[in-house]
Amino acid sequence: xxxxxxxxxxxxxxxxxxxxxxxxxxxxxxxxxxxxxxxxxxxxxxxxxxxxxxxxxxxxxxxxxxxxxxxxxxxxxxxxxxxxxxxxxxxxxxxxxxxxxxxxxxxxxxxxxxxxxxxxxxxxxxxxxxxxxxxxxxxxxxxxxxxxxxxxxxxxxxxxxxxxxxxxxxxxxxxxxxxxxxxxxxxxxxxxxxxxxxxxxxxxxxxxxxxxxxxxxxxxxxxxxxxxxxxxxxxxxxxxxxxxxxxxxxxxxxxxxxxxxxxxxxxxxxxxxxxxxxxxxxxxxxxxxxxxxxxxxxxxxxxxxxxxxxxxxxxxxxxxxxxxxxxxxxxxxxxxxxxxxxxxxxxxxxxxxxxxxxxxxxxxxxxxxxxxxxxxxxxxxxxxxxxxxxxxxxxxxxxxxxxxxxxxxxxxxxxxxxxxxxxxxxxxxxxxxxxxxxxxxxxxxxxxxxxxxxxxxxxxxxxxxxxxxxxxxxxxxxxxxxxxxxxxxxxxxxxxxxxxxxxxxxxxxxxxxxxxxxxxxxxxxxxxxxxxxxxxxxxxxxxxxxxxxxxxxxxxxxxxxxxxxxxxxxxxxxxxxxxxxxxxxxxxxxxxxxxxxxxxxxxxxxxxxxxxxxxxxxxxxxxxxxxxxxxxxxxxxxxxxxxxxxxxxxxxxxxxxxxxxxxxxxxxxxxxxxxxxxxxxxxxxxxxxxxxxxxxxxxxxxxxxxxxxxxxxxxxxxxxxxxxxxxxxxxxxxxxxxxxxxxxxxxxxxxxxxxxxxxxxxxxxxxxxxxxxxxxxxxxxxxxxxxxxxxxxxxxxxxxxxxxxxxxxxxxxxxxxxxxxxxxxxxxxxxxxxxxxxxxxxxxxxxxxxxxxxxxxxxxxxxxxxxxxxxxxxxxxxxxxxxxxxxxxxxxxxxxxxxxxxxxxxxxxx
Length: 910
Description:
Blueprint (H helix, E strand, L loop, with lengths): L28 E5 L11 E3 L5 E4 L6 E8 L12 E3 L6 H4 E4 L7 H4 L9 E6 L3 E10 L10 E5 L2 E7 L11 E10 L3 E5 L7 E12 L3 E5 L3 E5 L7 E8 L8 E6 L8 E4 L6 E6 L9 E10 L6 E10 L5 E4 L7 E2 L5 E3 L1 E3 L20 E6 L4 E3 L2 E4 L7 E5 L8 E6 L14 E7 L12 E7 L8 E6 L5 E5 L4 E6 L6 E7 L1 H6 L2 E8 L9 E8 L8 E9 L5 E10 L7 E6 L5 E5 L22 E5 L11 E2 L6 H5 L22 E6 L8 E2 L5 E5 L6 E3 L22 E4 L3 E7 L45 E5 L3 E6 L13 E5 L5 E7 L18 E5 L7 E2 L7 E7 L4 E6 L11 E7 L18
Parallel strand pairs: 1-2, 15-21, 23-31, 32-56, 40-44
Antiparallel strand pairs: 1-13, 3-4, 4-7, 5-6, 6-13, 7-12, 8-11, 8-13, 9-10, 9-12, 14-16, 16-19, 17-20, 18-19, 20-21, 22-25, 24-29, 26-27, 26-30, 28-29, 30-31, 32-59, 33-34, 34-35, 35-36, 37-38, 38-39, 39-40, 41-42, 42-43, 43-45, 46-47, 47-50, 48-49, 50-51, 52-53, 53-54, 54-55, 57-58, 58-59
């Protein structure tokens, strides 16, 4: 270090990047000096003149620290405005540069300088050691101002008295040099001493031989302390060094703000892998809020290491966020959504549990891009979940690579009792934007809001056999539109109020047309429950058949399907290739047992895909009452041929029963689709956390006709958030189990056992009948509407792929490609993984997809297969005032070489 750099106590730091402690990354670092509008060269970081500060990158896990300081004061200084981009040469590394000594440019001789007229030097925080550094200077343009470029790196002269020579674009206008330097104070320093109007183009730093260093790996870096609750107020820090030798360590803390000394450190031994205990029990003396401290580990002869720790102090009398899907201080390569998916809400008698979704808005939940001097609001969709157990933010466009962000939830988010959440914030960074060119899907749509559909809640969209678009609203009303297949516009609105007139307003979800339905003989099936999404009756689900030219005739076919207290109910309907009607039935609970959020036990038909053999309804008086019993003794002795149990309740296990269990343990599949490959795909929502799982009981009848006989499974409480899955049901196999427990059906293990629920002992494995999912959506994505794309548009880029609406986490349409797009003969049905998903692309993250992201809770979709256009229901669950519920047309953007439209195709959703 050759220039003094006093600590700047006057610079306000708006954000701290909380680096995940790990083995320091000493990779090559390449910086291009440029203006703010030039595209950053691939594989390089950009410097646009920002003061010395944190930058996202690869050094020490999640951040780089570099930038400019004043030659006069040694304090961080902005040279923003001094970056330039010349039209020549073509190499952007040379055509861009930053003025290091703009104070040498005389305004009287050369006119006004547009930038910062000051001299600065540049620093990069590094590990101590020997580095090979390459640097380039110069200017491709010929200017009047004097220029003598000098560069010193750690006091070593790298470029001396270089004056650009020659005409525009001449190679003589640039000079590069490579030197080897030694860094012993943790900062690689580059200055222009001895030069006049020096212009630096780029620098590349390569580690040659690093000095020994220490590093640490704490168990936690975001601490939670409950003032009136039971706490674990200490955690362990693993101490390591690059030489892996025995040494003594010293740990110190520097606290941000006025709160001091809330941590203490106790050594637990000496060695290459020593352990220290960090105790923060003194936090009990602090007020509720968020606190920060930097922990530095040092040892004689080793470079020190620092990690930042966040402490949040809450109490159990108010709601708070336990954690989010991103760890505070983490670096993520690809981020589709940020979700606070582990939430505590105190129970209040007489009040609905969970978060009041109406308080989750663009003002109470926000994402910021953070630079050294400002926080820039990031546009996106904020939303809760039906269970009130998660709060998420889906960016409207992919986040920028190598950037810092901060996710916040304010006290404006409240529970149903009106209690405000403790504020929450999580800072993170993004890594490099690696692109898998083999996975890019080239498909582009233009989003067009359909006039007349605004502020309406559509739950299901499909084309009828008459080529008209049918849109079911949540209250049971159906809207029918004529479709212009050239423009994609809708017209001729016809309102069909048959269900409302006959049954009153409802909560309607599923709509499908009968296999035998024609344009001249319309027959549709609709699923619905009583109106509202709270305190619903236990047996509340119904299915009706509508018929007639205007679907004016209604007949109830099924009554008393199960329902949760809230929004898990009888969902979508679809006819299978066998002519049967398949019904997605939601669960009654969060994780299989009664819990304070859902407040209902499971029933025999809940959390499953049901199959209705329509032919068996011929000799049965309708409506068919499918209310089931909770008496396990009767279920275990269900008769083989009679439609009812001994108490008169419905028996789904009889061979003569029209309605049976087709796939068990699917918690809440909003929609499903029969693919051309013969498989039934069901996107399903996992538990939002906080539920309870049941204990096993031997001798319980299971859907496949067997009886449970171990192993023993204990009940667990406060099951953590579970993943959302895409399930695949093979009609050639017997009924399987897909992971949502139901004690009445002898299914007890949630998903993959201990892997998904650490409340189990490690010995708990999957159920013997468990079927692995075809795809893992991750946490809190809420996958809902699904179709198979049928059109040859985009030269078949989307044909045969599944398109799935991600309602909460993503706000986009995801594209999934099965491994087999047509039926494949299999000798062993247990080895049918060929139909699982082999490629996936998020609408908000794939570089080839356009117009498939930034939606307000996309719920359902349908394709016009005559042209490949898509109609989408934006539901706007929370009635966010910044968004709108509507039908949106995704109109195909035709490009040269695209396949022609398929105008002879028959239109159908599924």
